Amino acid sequence: MKKGITASISILLVLSLFLVGCSSDESEKVTVDIFQLKVEIVDQLQSLVDDFMEENPDIIINLDTAGGGEDYTSILKTRMSSGNQPAIFQVPGPTERDVWFDFLTDLSEEQWVRVTSEGLLDNITVDGKIYGQPVNIEGYGIIYNKAILEQAGISQTMINNVNSLSSLQALFEEVEQQKEALGLEATLGWSVGGTAWWVSSYHTFNVPFAMQQDPMDFIEALNDDTANFADNEQMLAFKDLVDTFVTYSYEDVAVTDYEKQYSDFASGKTAFIQQGNWTINQLNEIDENLDIAFLPIPISDNTSWANDSIPVGVPNYWVVNKKLDDEVIEAAKKFLDYMVMNERGQQFMVEEAKYIPAFTNVSVEKADPLAQSIITYVNDEKTIPWVWHAFPLGLVENDAKKAFQDYVNGDKTWDEILSFLDTQWDEKTK
Amino acid sequence: MKKSNKLRNQLEYWSFVGPIFIAFLMVVIIPFIIGLYYSFTNWSAIPGRSIDFIGLENYIAAFRDEQFRISFFATIQFTLICVVLVNIVGFFLALLVTQKMRSANLLRTVFFMPNLIGGIVLGYIWRFIFIKVFVSLYESTGLGIFGLPWLSEANQAIWAMAIVTTWQFGGYIMVIYIAGLQGIPQSLIEAAQVDGANAWKRVRHIIFPLVAPAFTVSMFLTMSNSFKMFDVNLALTNGDPGRLTELLTLQIYNTAFTDSNFGQGQAYAAILFIIIGVVSFVQVYYNKRREVEM
Amino acid sequence: MNKKKYQRLSLQVFGILLGILYLSPFYIIVVNSFKEKKEFLLNTLSLPNTFVLDNYIKAMEKMGFLTALKNSLIISILSVALIVLLSSMAAWMLVRTKNKLSTVIFYAFIASMLIPFQSVMLPLVDLYGANKLNLINTYHGIIFMYIGFGASLSVILFHGFMKSIPKEVEEAATIDGCNKFQIFFNIVFPLLKPISITVAILNGMWIWNDYLLPSLVLQEKSLRTIPLSTKYFFGTYQADWTLAMAGLVLAIIPIIIFYFIAQKHIIKGAIDGAIK
User: Fold this and answer.
1) I need a labelling partner for A349 at 20 to 30 A (CA). Which of A224, B62, C31, C59 fits?
2) Chain B residues near residue C122 by CB distance under 8 angstroms
3) CATH assignment of A2-134+316-357?
4) What's the pLDDT at A27?
5) Which has the closest alpha carbon to A395: B65, B259, C272, B283?
6) Per DSSP, what are the bridge partners of residue A383?
7) CATH tag, A138-313+374-428
8) Do the Cβ atoms of A60 and A53 come closer than 8 Å?
9) Which domains does chain B have, with CATH numbers?
10) How many whole angstroms separate alpha carbon B261 and alpha carbon C70?
11) Is the ipTM of this complex over 0.90?
């Protein structure tokens, strides 16, 4: 018996040596590793990849996805340190663009560049050279439930006229008055913590930046310390928006989770939420027939500040790793081209992934209500940019989150919050 | 003859100790030393970037950093609570399941099971319990303990983490206490019973001294485990509110990965290592002395 | 006698109540693994209106359950077997050879328990990466790492237990001309059964459930373990909670079975000892 154990262990040992290193030998073909972060569209993307490989038998594409909703950059970093580098990966904006700059292939000469909608390449352009392909566009704002507002006797005109903080407050107040009659738990669903911390730290926090004269200049000025949060008008005004959100949202905005936020809204327990068009699938899982659309996120009554616009941006860019062999780079470019210029790619984008396309040659015929609402804002040119991808690394995840929670819990005054942000920003850019 | 004997002994010694020691060196010690080296640099972990030696700067920054101080004290508070709770619970679970009863074997499995859930699902379930289940228990029973702001205030949130850790880790420690308890000859306990010693006296005078070695190990494990706690912290509070419940390992992770400041993160890790080292040394030394006294 | 019976009964009841309390979080997992997503979100605590087995089928498909199970089994079993074997060998030699070197090595094992994993993970990935040792994405690479990380606790546990093994038998065997290997495998190792099982349980459970290390060194899809594959229920903005819970149930069933079986052996071992 004892000998049996010893023997079986030695067999296992030997076996383990045989089990390893079985990499297949396909020297004729070019292998392209894609590393992306959208778990939601893995199946659709895989089927696109399969079709691409069928048309290009000399290219093998391995699609890999970072699961767990974790920080994609962290995983990308370990992957790069381990020497197992993907050929195509994703970069969200200027900060990460600079981090990975040594790895980025110049894509300026690609076909799809000419059909990319205006302004969408700015975040991925350095010295006139374009380094990435926009994945799609997304937008967010205050989503309202038309049925509930109708029930509250609010006219569409009143809703359409929301273009300032006071008009938004008036709308919230109207609903708040009838909260019980409407069966609402809260007027607005908003959160600064739990699994929904990003709702405020990324999206709400973006608004006062996006409403600057020139947002990128402002960030630049914060970086070289010629501007400060503490004496910036938009930042000071931002307090009123946060106060409004706290007043009309749940009692425990500090711990409200994302699941609660969207399921309450979809089941009619809140009349408004601050969210983006990506939430549509989750909302529809609970109620398929929601009649919903976006309102802007105004921070003041100042008419020169784009208080009537919603933030629309590119969440991620596809980039090609420059450090790999030329034929891999060429194959990777070919795939990116296929995604935009080929009909199959366009079908993936619009019908399967349900993206709002970033390209003029791709049109959407049947968009969901939230995407439709965003397209309307885009057509009316009432959009402001997404700028948090240009913030110093970690500022949103660590510092903005803390700032919101400290303010909401009453641990810090607004002035203290602003000077805290100043200190942290300087610390991270020194 | 004598020389070859010595050589043979050496060879035998290393053929027993060698394999695992080499794995241990290669996997733990060498990376740790490389990590220590990085703590004196501005390492960004981006391949191709230069790594510059910056001396003690990261260590000095650690002592100036307010967040480090907050995380440090939160970690101490958390560890103290955990060491007490986990050991009490683990010990009594072990006592319970070593009694002669039909369900003992089943109960061991039951108490051990919480070890099997971790990560995001653990966080979701316990957040749900603290936020929703406790509130409805409060409404139906009126017991004040359920009405506390478990996750929204830092103090309670640290207790909440300790409770979840106890639930998770109590069964683990129980296994170690069981091994200790089973080493006690049944005859000794029966003899005491015949002599009229009540349950408490039996525990105090017979069981405690005999499980003292298990206690030393368990306390050491609970302590280093609490100091290094990451999973529960990330899943349950993720530092909320206001990074006040961000324990040191989570802070190391955030500094390294989120702020992309790996050199600084390594310096925090080195400091954490020293802290745990000192505390554990004192604890083990003290317990070993007690073991003898008992 | 009656009083004793009563005491035992109340202890039994208390134990069962405590067990139920301990299991209550599992109730949430199991119940919701049978629900549709909508019902899960709106009525988390209630029993499912209609039992949906779909979640399990979908979860298995999405996780690539059989591949993940195979990977988890290979990695866990080989790692645990090697940890038990190698660490008991080392612990025995360290206890039986009393010299400075043994003391230093033993203290090195203890001290390393204090190293936070976060502080070695990046150097580790760097060192074992494709540019250097190239052990990323292999079974033997991760098994080697588990042996290294599991060494400390296992050696410490064996070391502690070794003291209770009488030296006399070994000495007699030495006189009979047995070499160290024969002594260890024929005499000592069988005596270590209870602690070996404890070590196997603690390591097995840790390795089976470990997420962080495999997430760093098993980057290829075909090598994913069960904990790695369950992470794919979680996206950036959305989580398939019902699938995740079904996946979790699938993931913990094998280890509960393992524990239950091992558990019986511990008790049997203890009884064997008592009879002698």
Assistant:
1) C59
2) 35, 45, 256, 262
3) 3.40.190.10
4) 58
5) B259
6) A310
7) 3.40.190.10
8) yes
9) 65-293 (1.10.3720.10)
10) 37
11) no
